[in-house]
Amino acid sequence: MPARDNPESNAHGLSDELFSRLPEPSHQVPGVAATPPAPGSRRARREAGLAGTPDPVPARPAADTTSTEDEPDAVAPTATRPEEAAPVRAEATTAPTLDDLFAADHTEAVHAKATKKKRRTGCLVGLIIVLAVIGGIVGAGFAVMNTYGEQISDALGWGEPKDWEPGMATGEALVTIREGDTGGPISTALYEAGVTKTENVFYDYLVDENIAVTFYPGVYPMQQKMTAAAALEILRDPDNMLANTVGIVEGGTVESALPVISESIDIPLEELEAAVADPSAYGVKADSLEGWLFPAVYTFDPEVTATQVIQRMVDRTRESLSAAGVPPEDEQRILTVASIIQREGRTDDFAKVARVIENRLDDGMKLQMDSTSQYGYGELHAGVVSTSEEAQFDDNPWNTYVIDGLPVGPIANPSDAAIDAAMHPVDGPWLYFVTINPATGETVFSTTYAEHEAAIQTWIEWCRENPDQGC
User: Fold this and answer.
1) 384, 416, 389, 419: which is closest to 402 by C-alpha?
2) Cα–Cα distance between 7 and 369 in angstroms, integer?
3) Which pLDDT score, from 0 to 100, does residue 433 have?
4) Could you tell me if 256 and 250 are in contact, meaning their C-beta atoms sit under 8 angstroms apart?
5) Is 426 a residue whose pLDDT tops 80?
6) How far apart are CA 397 and CA 407, in angstroms?
7) What was the pLDDT predicted at 295?
8) What is the pLDDT of residue 118?
9) In 3D, which of 405, 401, 403 has the Cα closest to residue 393?
């Protein structure tokens, strides 16, 4: 088989022939080797020993500063003379790369972001501080208002008015003024009857206006929602009293009630005394009607008799006993317990006083109630809290310091609340109680005698500090 031509020798021969035909280089047109590389080109980087590094961004040719207004700016040629190439290559080697530019942008962005974040953080901290200060001020304001809100409101005129406005009076109300009542009790009576808006507004009006007035006992027809001034105008005139109307006070006795009845409805006292002499005439199985003249306000016809008056009051007592669920056979006992409760405690403590009475009776202890010894000795209305030594040791059937068990009968007229408490004592272990502040009625209930003695000392100290309070 004939031999084939050698490709390599043919190629070399062809290339030599082609290059031999090229013209000689001209001194006017520089060759590749003689021509300096363009700044930033791959060739410039190879010649500078920077091969393999990222391509730099070509430097922008500088404008010819010798140009005039008539000639456009000359642009530097891309090819320079050999003696000028070195400086150009040196400038090219120090030109920033894309990475450098991006790195610079990234640094500026990070710095801007950090600055912005610091600003946001600073604003947030400032906002938190402002809110904390505002919150503290608001919190302090709430605390002050919770403690002194009523006083502040009153001083600034923001509070709810304590008196009704003129012209608001409506409806009907009966107010009883009792013998010896002053501004304080009358102010409370007006409020409880719905006449005045607040409990103390009538009393405050008397004090603020420096009004001196004499109040006459009796029953006065009034309206609800009256101003304090309008109420005073009615109460200061005895001609406004209702005829044949009488009020029996809670805790009063037959002895104290009969003169009030006589004066109020113009019945001779002797007739009333005769009317109460025989309890059996009213179905009461007792030696006295003590406790049976129910405390309330009554209005009678002008022709009413003494017996009719007493019968009306006894019937009202039976209504209260029935409402409390008292069996007929227990009426006298419950009235006796209720009368002690009425004289010994305030309404809020009635059920606890009833429990002390029952606990002492169950334990076989003497009741030792001051009110019973005072009643038996005849000093119940003496106006003092403590019992005299004579009354405490006087031997009579009502004195529970001497006798065992309950007194022989009631010692006063009990209210609905006292009767209900006697029928339904609250549960508790107490055996003693003492009113440590007669002005407010604050009472301490104790289980042991040591506790009771400590409470008595508190009462004694109060009496020393208030010598004019009838201790």
Assistant:
1) 389
2) 146
3) 94
4) no
5) yes
6) 6
7) 94
8) 55
9) 401
Beta bridge partners, 298, equal: 246
Closest CA to 320 of 411, 418, 247: 418
Give residue 93's pLDDT: 46
Distance CA(229)–CA(207), nearest Å, equals: 12
Q: Is the pLDDT of residue 27 over 80?
A: no
Q: 3-state SS of the chain?
A: CCCCCCHHHHHHHHHHHHHHCCCCCCCCCCCCCCCCCCCCCHHHHHHCCCCCCCCECCCCCCECCCCCCCCCCCECCCCCCHHHHHHHHHHHHCCCEHHHHHHHHHHHHHHHHHHHHHHHHHHHHHHHHHHHHHHHHHHHHHHHHHHHHHHHHHHHCCCCCCCCCCCCCEEEEEEEECCCCCHHHHHHHHHHCCCCCCCCHHHHHHHHCCCCCCCCCEEEEEEECCCHHHHHHHHCCHHHCCCCEEECCCCCCHHHHHHHHHHHHCCCHHHHHHHCCCHHHHCCCCCCCCCCCCCCEEECCCCCCHHHHHHHHHHHHHHHHHHCCCCHHHHHHHHHHHHHHHHHCCHHHHHHHHHHHHHHHHCCCCCCCHHHHHHHHCCCCCCCCCCCHHHHCCCCCCCCCCCCCCCCCCCCCCCHHHHHHHHCCCCCCCCEEEEEECCCCEEEEECCHHHHHHHHHHHHHHHHHCCCCCC
Backbone φ/ψ region at 427: left (φ over 0), alpha (ψ -120 to 50), beta: beta
222: phi then psi, degrees, rounded to nearest 5: -140, -175
Q: What are phi and psi of 97, to 5 degrees?
A: -90, 170
Tokens 């006894």 belong to which residue?
Answer: 314
User: What b/e string do you get for 417-429 counting C-beta neighbours within 10 Å, with b at 16 or more?
Assistant: bbbbbbbebeeee
Question: Given this model, what pLDDT does residue 425 score?
Answer: 97
Distance (Å, whole) CA 219 – CA 49? 126
Tokens 């019992």: give the residue: 387
pLDDT digit string, tens, across residues 171-221? 989 898 877 789 999 999 999 999 999 999 999 999 999 998 889 888 899
Residues making up the chain, counted from first to last? 471
Please name the residue that has the structure tokens 């013209």. Answer: 23
Question: Scanning the structure block, which residue is given the tokens 């309008």?
Answer: 230
pLDDT digits (tens, 9 = 90+) for 214-231: 898 888 999 999 999 999
Region 53-68: mean pLDDT is 43
Instruction: Look up residue 337 and give its two tokens.
Output: 């317990």
Query: What residues contact residue 241 under an 8 Å CB cut-off, 6+ apart?
Result: 216, 218, 219, 220
Question: Among 250, 244, 178, which Cα is nearest to 215's?
Answer: 178
